[in-house]
Amino acid sequence: METNLNHILVFKTNIDQLSTDCALSESLGKQTGISQWSIDHEDCDRVLRIVSKTLSNHDIISLINAHGFECAELP
Amino acid sequence: MRTRNADKEKLVIEKAIELIVSDGFEGFSMNKLARLCNISVATLYIYYQHKDDLITKIGSEIGTAFFAHTLKDFSADMPFPQGLRKQWENRISFSLQHPKIVACFEIIRHSPHGEQILQTAVSPFKQIMADFFTNAVDNKELQPLPIEVFWSVAYGPLYSLLRFHSEGKSMGGKPFSLTDDYTNQALELVLKALKP
Fold first, then answer.
1. Contact B36/B57 with Cβ under 8 angstroms?
2. pTM for the model
3. Which ipTM did the prediction report?
4. Which of A43, A44, A51 best tests the B interface by mutation, with the highest count of B CBs <10 A?
5. Tell me: the pLDDT tens digits for B113-160?
6. Which of B18, B45, B48, B111 gets the highest tally of CB atoms within 10 A of its CB?
7. Which CATH architecture has domain A5-73?
8. Order of strands, edge to edge, in the sheet holding A47-52?
9. From which domain of life does this come (chain A) (predicted)?
10. Which domain holds residue B120?
11. Which CATH number fits the domain that encloses residue B26?
């Protein structure tokens, strides 16, 4: 099914490496409202891409910050 | 409300192909691509999950376009000489019409994504080409050969000529441009060599 483009949120982060069992992966995976997420580790902005119908940019930024990473809306 | 913009997507694909050809697979980045397209990096990430996603999608798209072009007016039950001639004609016309796409596809197929892309783009094509080969052997129009030997003899000369053409020169820098005469000469020799 085609993702609704309004449900895609993108952020600049400093998340370098992420193992599947680390706390951040777990909370992104468990977080209600996130249907899909990915990070482009090759990109200099370590772009985090979230598909969510319900969460706002602010919700995501708080979640990432809570794990000690920087996160900002990608202009 | 954000909507998918087909023109923008087309532009992204076109510029991505140019960038891969000019900077190579390693030199390609989402940032450079966004700048070339005059769109924000965020927009690019809305369309594609990451660099690998973009490269895989573009690779599959151009692979599919190439194989579809190759099969134009071609069928697996054609007599072998006509079928091979059609393959040569189709491959030549695609290379001449889309030199950048061909160069880009070569880079992508040798990248870590090559295998995956070839598997999705090639599968319908592979069956038709395998049938063409088997029919030709069954009809005693073609020597039974290991597929690699067949391919090298059947298409190797064509790709050598196309490479000379795209470089504009042959051995020792001699100017070269592919003509029907050269093509026919090479194809006749190939057909003669493959005959049982």
1. no
2. 0.78
3. 0.72
4. A43
5. 788 877 777 777 889 999 999 999 999 999 999 999 999 999 999 999
6. B45
7. 2-Layer Sandwich (3.30)
8. A34-40, A47-52, A8-13, A71-73
9. Bacteria
10. 59-194
11. 1.10.10.60
